[in-house]
Design a protein that fits this description.
- The protein is of the alpha/beta class.
- It has a domain of 116 residues: P-loop containing nucleotide triphosphate hydrolases (Rossmann fold, 3-Layer(aba) Sandwich).
- 35% of the residues lie in helices and 25% in strands.
- It has eight helices and eleven strands.
- Strands 1, 2, 3, 4, 5, 6, 7, 8, 9, 10 and 11 form an eleven-stranded mixed β-sheet that branches.
- Helix 3 crosses helix 4 and helix 4 runs parallel beside helix 5.
- The longest helix is centred in the C-terminal third of the chain and has 18 residues.
- It is globular.
- The protein starts with a strand and ends with a helix.
- The relative contact order is 0.20.
Length: 231
């Protein structure tokens, strides 16, 4: 589904963000300097920040005033939000039923999601027994089960080393393709965008610019992006 931000304005105490653009179905990276508004953009789409003006639509539905839980969106943060007292299986199953009272079909769904992210034999472990990359895989498995048409990642792999980060990015790209979803990914690393994102949105000085093809944007960066990249 496409995401349309129509003359959107988000105002906070000492900060504002403007966005008037359409994000196409597929994978779009969001890049820019710290404090420029990248995370705010995702929070507005997810419904955790209310705009002062403008509207937000996903597909043909306006969701500007829709509560976060009812939006067709899953938002994954760098802090993977796993419950330490629950097992990998239970943390994943929260994506199906928060009360964890699963039917046989739902149990199979959870096991299938864990298999897709390479954790099929780790369901009985707890988050403290996992590596950082494995904990993010659990979060991705839970996101799979939510099965929302829009998946948004807020720098979830920033703390991982290059090899593991690339592995996780490739996994996300496969999940997006399998679910035929729209993926938005905040990153501070140009290589992440170039690896999996067809389009990239630059967010700087409180303005989100229209998406451009990723390779073209980095080959001919505007002044704000050039300054950020140190070019």
């Amino acid at each position: 589904m496409d995401i349309k931000l129509d003359k959107l304005l988000v105002e906070q105490t000492d900060f504002s963000l403007q966005a008037d653009l359409t994000i196409k179905h597929g994978t779009t990276a969001i890049i820019g300097p710290s404090g420029g508004g990248k995370s705010t953009l995702l929070l507005a789409i997810a419904g955790f920040v209310s705009p002062t003006k403008g509207s937000i639509s996903i597909g043909h539905t306006t969701i500007t005033n829709t509560p976060p839980a009812k939006r067709p969106v899953t938002l994954l943060f760098q802090e993977n939000n796993l419950f330490p007292h629950l097992t990998v299986f239970q943390n994943t199953a929260l994506g199906v039923r928060p009360d964890l009272k699963l039917s046989r079909i739902q149990i199979d769904q959870v096991e299938g999601a864990l298999e897709k992210v390479g954790l099929v034999d780790m369901g009985t472990r707890h988050p403290s027994e996992l590596s950082g990359g494995q904990r993010q895989r659990v979060s991705l498995a839970r996101a799979l089960l939510r099965d929302r048409p829009v998946l948004m990642l807020d720098e979830p792999f920033a703390a991982l080393g290059p090899a593991l980060r690339h592995e996780m990015l490739d996994l996300v790209a496969r999940i997006r393709q399998d679910q035929d979803s729209t993926l938005l990914m905040v990153t501070h690393n140009p290589d992440d965008a170039l690896r999996i994102a067809e389009y990239t949105v630059l967010v700087a000085d409180g303005v989100a610019t229209a998406p451009q093809r990723t390779a073209e944007l980095f080959n001919n960066p505007p002044p704000a992006l050039a300054a950020y990249l140190g070019k």
